[in-house]
User: Fold this.
Amino acid sequence: RMDMVVRSMLQDSKGSVEKPELDESIRFRDEDVNRIYFLLFRLLKSALKNPKLAEKFGVSNDKLLSTWYLAVNVENVADCCKNISTLLKKAKKDETELASSTLKELEKSYLDVMKSYYNKDKILADSVAKQRIGLLKQIDKLPQQYSESFKLMTTLLGNVARIVLDEE
Assistant:
């Protein structure tokens, strides 16, 4: 569910250049992602404390921890979407073109890394991880106010790729 909400947030973040009113909707969805994250966190914590519950879920402690780390990173991607949307809403026209194309690249990386997670595709995850350097070079061309959120999102996507690569 978190993934689906973040996908829509990424889509609408790109659209916030033309439709600034999308920013409010993105903020509400970020709150939804936060609520889902905390529910998942409580479930995972309960499963770690109670081995019978983990057994009922059919997951090991390793899987519980990697699921938690995935959730942390996806929740932080949602926060980045919220911040980027706010920046794009206020941006000058000359800033928006490069920021929008960079966001489109980040969205593609997000979709690829989540696909790699669901399909346990280490090759695709590795491909996303290798794109990081190119994305960072593109981000360095952006005005300073965009750098932090875009770089953080790049790091978060790399973290998810590492989750896939580290799975046994």
Summary: Residues 13 and 128 are 21 Å apart (CA to CA). The chain has a mean pLDDT of 91. The chain is about 90% helix and 0% strand. The first helix runs from residue 2 to 15.
